[in-house]
From TrEMBL:
PROSITE patterns per UniProt: AA_TRANSFER_CLASS_2 (PS00599)
Entry-linked InterPro entries: 4pyrrol_synth_NH2levulA_synth (IPR010961), Aminotrans_II_pyridoxalP_BS (IPR001917), Aminotransferase_I/II_large (IPR004839), AON_synthase_class-II (IPR050087), PyrdxlP-dep_Trfase (IPR015424), PyrdxlP-dep_Trfase_major (IPR015421), PyrdxlP-dep_Trfase_small (IPR015422)
Cofactor: pyridoxal 5'-phosphate
Pathway field: Porphyrin-containing compound metabolism; protoporphyrin-IX biosynthesis; 5-aminolevulinate from glycine: step 1/1
Source organism of this protein record: Antarcticimicrobium luteum
Entry keyword annotation includes Electron transport: no
GO molecular function: 5-aminolevulinate synthase activity; pyridoxal phosphate binding
Identification of the protein by name: 5-aminolevulinate synthase
Reactions catalysed: succinyl-CoA + glycine + H(+) = 5-aminolevulinate + CO2 + CoA
Subunit organization: Homodimer.
GO biological process: protoporphyrinogen IX biosynthetic process
Length: 407
């Protein structure tokens, strides 16, 4: 077999479908985000504004976070030196887990190198702890949850997105004696819609199921202390396992679960994705802990974030652009064609200095390709005006339809 030829064919298919992805080489400037410097393929540089970042609150440049990281770096050096079981547990990791357990009102928390690994490792390990476990997974769950459920070797049921009636049917059809777990999200990142947390918890109580919620796109941003949508809705106590990230609103890196001490101990002891992975660098853990602690008190930053999202959605709607608005901070503008989506993204970057990454299949279904904007408190009025004018001009230039709300 000609292996190189097969690789070329695989990459060519992506080009033909208009969904080949390229890295945009940017240099974030501390203290100036969302402004950054873009280095073009020819080596020339331009100033740009990032509109698709996951540093939702700008905490990646917050002085409290940077100070904590500098102190930990000076005190403990660069790396952790090992896995959590073998020399890689430091006071910084323990402090971070204590902050996270307190944030979610749980007995314990367990930190992983990413929320992807936290989801995958936890969901793939649970059937070892509960033989015969059936996992009921929302159809639009994140790839990390899908992978964890797929790899666990246990039974799985997929319920239609946010369809509580379908979930009930699936639960009722299974052996009432079988252990069960319902896995879902609080905010779904591509459409920005919310999961029906209370209704799912009611079903879990009725059918004796555990609950597993991914709050990755909500932690730091929702609730009086930033614990997520479940905290906002006063439902945290009804959730058995809460997954979150340290790489989005908290502005650093890593993921975690928060649960009972017994659950965290079992996952820690059985999950290969935890056992055999070098722990986060102490400076990263320290910065994350500082960010979590700060955002427990900074409601004003959360309020500004929500205000920015509402302003952008209102202005895009006023121009008739087909946006999806479920009331969250995520602002998807539907283009509906991968080639057009990529073209819009390229033109925004090259002609207007606005960086927003095209979102194509398989991240979203074919025909729903989109630009996904993530406004933040550090996007000022000038940046907002420039974005709105650019979208208006390009939508007309490309002869795309103006429409009512897409959702």
């Amino acid at each position: 077999m000609n292996y190189s030829e097969k690789l070329d064919e695989a990459i060519a298919r992506l080009h033909d479908e208009g969904r080949y992805r390229t890295f945009i080489d940017i240099e974030r400037r501390n203290g100036h985000f969302p402004h950054a410097v873009w280095t073009r393929p020819d080596g020339t540089q331009s100033d740009i504004t990032v509109w698709c970042g996951n540093d939702y609150l700008g905490m990646g440049q917050h002085p409290v976070v940077l100070e904590a990281m500098h102190e930990a770096l000076d005190a403990a050096g660069a790396g952790s030196g090992g896995t959590r079981n073998i020399s890689g547990t430091t006071v910084f990791h323990k402090r971070l887990e204590a902050e996270l357990a307190d944030l979610h009102g749980k007995e314990a928390a367990l930190v992983f190198t990413s929320a992807y690994i936290a989801n995958d490792a936890t969901l793939s390990t649970l059937p070892k702890l509960f033989p015969g476990l059936i996992i009921y997974s929302d159809a639009l769950n994140h790839a990390s949850m899908i992978e964890g459920v797929r790899r666990n070797g246990g039974a799985k049921r997929i319920f239609r997105h946010n369809d509580v009636d379908h979930l009930r049917e699936l639960l009722a059809a299974d052996d009432p004696r079988a252990p069960k777990l319902i896995a879902f999200e609080s905010v779904y990142s591509m459409d920005g819609d919310f999961g029906p947390i209370e209704a799912i918890c009611d079903l879990a109580d009725e059918f004796g199921a555990l609950t597993y919620i991914d709050e990755v796109h909500a932690v730091g941003m929702y609730g009086p202390r930033g614990a997520g949508v479940a905290e906002r809705d006063r439902l945290m106590h009804r959730l058995d396992i809460i997954n979150g990230t340290l790489a989005k609103a908290f502005g650093v890196m890593g993921g975690y679960i928060a649960a009972s001490a017994r659950m965290c101990d079992a996952i820690r002891s059985y999950a290969p994705g935890f056992i055999f992975t070098t722990s986060l660098p102490p400076a990263v853990a320290a910065g994350a802990a500082a960010s979590v602690a700060h955002l427990k008190r900074d409601q004003e930053l959360r309020d500004r974030h929500q205000t920015q999202a509402k302003i952008l959605k209102t202005r895009l709607k006023a121009m008739g652009l087909p946006i999806i608005d479920h009331g969250s901070h995520i602002v998807p503008v539907i283009v509906g064609d991968p080639v057009h989506t990529k073209k819009l993204s390229d033109m925004l970057l090259e002609n207007y200095g606005i960086y927003v990454q095209p979102i194509n299949f398989p991240t979203v279904p074919r025909g729903t390709e989109r630009l996904r904007f993530t406004p933040s408190p550090v996007h000022g009025p000038n940046e907002m005006d420039k974005l709105v004018r650019a979208m208006d001009e390009l939508w007309s230039h490309c002869a795309l339809n103006r429409a009512e709300l897409a959702g």
